[in-house]
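> call design_seq(struct)
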């Protein structure tokens, strides 16, 4: 299977190192190895760097399972990050000729991999007013070959979250039509008020990691939580590529999850501050709009006059050093993805620079204006 270019990831790879100010990263400020290890320094002493437990360290697995109601260990598989977990789910569940439903704007993996596998994919356009999924349109899109609905909650790039009632309605529709759900929950910090899809529907498979909610993408710890029958097949598929994550990564992952509330608290504070600052700034502008996200570390900012978001982002980076991923990488023009998880010296001042650049950009490129 020859892959297509993964637009958002290739954009980050090509341009991120040029950034003076990165306003688009989807993670959060990361701890250093020393900071993380200092939570439990004795656990790393005399650590043997063999393969470790192939299915993942038992302590790590128990901490992951504590996020969910069903804590059966046979419902969990460890992966290298969330994206690999989602890929493994698709490869195990889908066959050529199956029908898959997902939406745009969204994460390209959700439609690209099924298409490359020979599946028919239906992309539902989200409601731009609030980035909601039209439940009626979803049900009408289901046909006899529909195998899988792929969701992202909270979503990349919009930051939109599903309400509990919406999740229950989607689960009800999928149960009625015998459709599996794959939900990427990498931006979700599950609790009583924000349940996982895995707790609501017996044919829901969720994937997640430590990359976003705890700001530890360098650990590359992810997981798949789902029905025992599917996880069993995924465990077999892991043997062809992953084998194990190893004792060092597993131990660090366990430490992070043992101290997750201590690590998460300052990240939530930064996200809340940035979300409020951006929202207040946008409220004073005529050329910028967004749907304020309720959860997660992302938002999708509309730059009203722009029709070529990639060109705008390239020139903005070249002339100011401010970095965004354009909406075109997610299937929606006229937008940029804004990240909320990092501490910025002056995020409002950086946004002022974006606004001032926009005025010069429009003078130089009048043909880019929305009609």
């Amino acid at each position: 299977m020859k892959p297509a270019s993964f637009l958002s990831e290739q954009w980050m790879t090509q341009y991120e190192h040029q950034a003076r100010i990165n306003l688009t990263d989807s993670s959060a400020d990361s701890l250093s190895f020393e900071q993380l290890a200092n939570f439990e320094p004795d656990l790393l002493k005399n650590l043997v760097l063999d393969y470790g437990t192939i299915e993942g360290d038992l302590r790590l697995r128990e901490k992951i399972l504590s996020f969910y109601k069903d804590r059966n260990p046979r419902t969990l598989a460890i992966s290298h990050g969330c994206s690999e977990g989602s890929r493994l789910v698709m490869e195990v569940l889908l066959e050529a000729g199956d029908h898959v439903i997902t939406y745009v704007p969204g994460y390209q993996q959700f439609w690209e991999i099924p298409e490359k596998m020979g599946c028919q994919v239906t992309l539902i356009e989200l409601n731009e007013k609030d980035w909601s999924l039209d439940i009626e349109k979803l049900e009408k899109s289901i046909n006899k070959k529909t195998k899988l609905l792929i969701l992202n909650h909270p979503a990349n790039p919009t930051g939109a979250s599903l309400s509990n009632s919406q999740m229950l309605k989607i689960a009800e529709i999928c149960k009625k039509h015998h459709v599996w759900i794959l939900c990427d929950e990498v931006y979700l910090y599950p609790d009583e008020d924000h349940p996982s899809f895995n707790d609501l529907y017996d044919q829901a498979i969720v994937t997640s990691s430590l990359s976003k909610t705890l700001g530890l993408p360098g650990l590359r710890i992810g997981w798949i939580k789902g029905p025992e029958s599917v996880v069993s097949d995924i465990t077999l598929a892991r043997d062809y590529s992953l084998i194990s994550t190893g004792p060092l990564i597993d131990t660090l992952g366990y430490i992070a999850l043992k101290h997750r509330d201590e690590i998460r608290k300052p990240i939530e504070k930064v996200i809340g501050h940035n979300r409020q600052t951006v929202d207040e700034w946008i409220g004073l502008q005529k050329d910028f709009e967004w749907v304020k996200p309720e959860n997660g570390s992302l938002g999708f900012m509309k730059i009203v006059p722009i029709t070529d978001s990639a060109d705008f982002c390239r020139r903005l980076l070249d002339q100011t050093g401010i970095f965004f991923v354009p909406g075109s990488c997610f299937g929606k023009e006229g937008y940029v993805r804004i990240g909320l998880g990092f501490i910025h010296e002056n995020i409002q001042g950086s946004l002022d620079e974006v606004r001032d650049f926009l005025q010069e950009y429009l003078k130089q490129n009048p043909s880019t204006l929305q009609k």
